[in-house]
# Entry
Amino acid sequence: MPSSKYLKLVGLKVYDLDARYIGTVTDIGLMSKEEGDLQLYLVVSKGSENMAIPVKSIHSVGDIILLREGYEAEAIEQQASAPGISTAVSAEPSTVTAHAEALNSPRVQSGAEKHVIPRCPSCGSALIYEPRKKQWYCPRCKKYVKIPAEVEAKVPRCPSCGLPLSYIEEYGKWYCYNCRRYVDVE
# Structure
């Protein structure tokens, strides 16, 4: 019998071709847009946001999932229909477009202003500010990265020490490596 490669998709991080982080696969499911038309979708979550991405939008799979250029995305909400069971409800098309644009943006909206998440030019990961070296570091590439001054000016700063904060994508929170604590950014 020929061997087949088993791919575990749930838990993998999803990126677009520009190496921008889209989210993490939390589930795989079927959705029907028309009567009898079932399509397989990845449920991708980033913070409290959920979106459905058709499997046909996948470019490649390895340690991460890379999406094709111009991939389709549809915002969804999880609504509990019974204990332990959830159903996906699609949002209005204008909301879907706005959601997809927000996920592709290197910015995080916080209150009335926007803050920039500094990203590695090689892999797209969020950079970490190392206070001892006063430099930005990419944990994935394991190298220090210089970022433009206009980007660093838009990175929020710690209210206690004044140093730049690092965005922790896994938790969707800003962290100060100098004070060693999470900071609520307003």
In short: The first helix runs from residue 93 to 104.
